[in-house]
Amino acid sequence: MHDYLYELSLRARQAGRRRWLHTCILAFATTALAISGGAHADAPWPDKPVRIIVPFTAGGTTDVVARVLGAELGQLWHQSVVIDNRPGAGGAIGATLTAKAPPDGYTLLMASGSMFTVNPYLYRNLPYTLKDFDYITNVASGPMLVLVNNALPAHDLKALIALAKAQPKKLNFGSAGNGSQVHMAGEALADAAGIQITHVPYKGEALAYNDLLAGQVQLVVGNIAAASVFAKSGKARALAVTGPVRSPMMPDVPTAKEAGLPDYETTGWFALVTAVGTPKDVVDKIQRDTAMVLRNPAVREKLAGQGMTPVGNTPAELVKSIQDESGKWKAIVARRNLSIE
Fold it and tell me: Cross-referenced InterPro entries, in alphabetical order (predicted)?
């Protein structure tokens, strides 16, 4: 009996030691996981290069704004910020790529406003929806410029409108693509003036100017940053600015209201968005850092040189502005009977 009890005691002590060892291993593993998880949660973002997709060709205003911002964010983040031009379908190709990217903030889209305020009403089969994105901030906004070929016998806006009314659908206007801000600025001009002009879409704003100078199209209502270059060089003629006041870039060019078309006003803007589901802290960091960069006097000067005013608003404010502006463009698309497959 004594031997039996001794054996039981020995087994109990051995079992206790095993339980103690097991408990220690579990505690060590739990601590290691906690430390690992904490380190991951606290890891700095970004810890690898960030891509900004520009859904239009290089040289247009969307591209210029993206490069100004990307250079500054790259310095702030100590990471490369790569500009990736993916033109086509009024921005839909670049938007779709962004929507399908991992929702981690490493793929951003520099979108023109029309991609969210116009395209949902214009395209019958748009490959993306507004719900596919998390909205970060409006980066910059600026007026458009009514620009015509030098050979066109119209030296002011009233003369252009008279010429278009005398020759319905004979005047061609170029754009950065179907649904682009440049396209819709031209449609808004036609709507306000009651004229019929023919749209010629390109894969980017820069390509539209090439054909404007060559006389293939007679008119472009372009973002003022790009369009003013041709007006200042004398290669094309500026007739009006589409903003509420004259632009410091072109102080001698009247507003559309001053030129006799009071109901015509449109502003282009450019916003950062990313794939839906991106962690809120990442979205908020990108917004804060963008807003901080936009307060830099050197950046403001660069944007002013492009006719742009920095914005840097919150995601909620950006979403509200999209909602507010959408009604205007929905009505113009309907009145102009616009539709794209």
Answer: BUG, Bug_dom1
Angle 258-148-190 from CA coordinates, rounded to 5°: 65
Please indicate, yes or no, whether the overall pTM of this predicted structure exceeds 0.85. no
Domain made up of 50-142+268-336: CATH architecture: 3-Layer(aba) Sandwich (3.40)
The amino acid present at 135, given as its one-letter code, is Y
Q: What is the mean pLDDT of each run of 10 residues along the chain (341 residues)?
A: 42 52 45 41 83 91 93 97 92 95 98 93 92 98 96 97 97 92 95 97 90 97 91 97 93 96 93 98 98 97 91 97 95 93 76
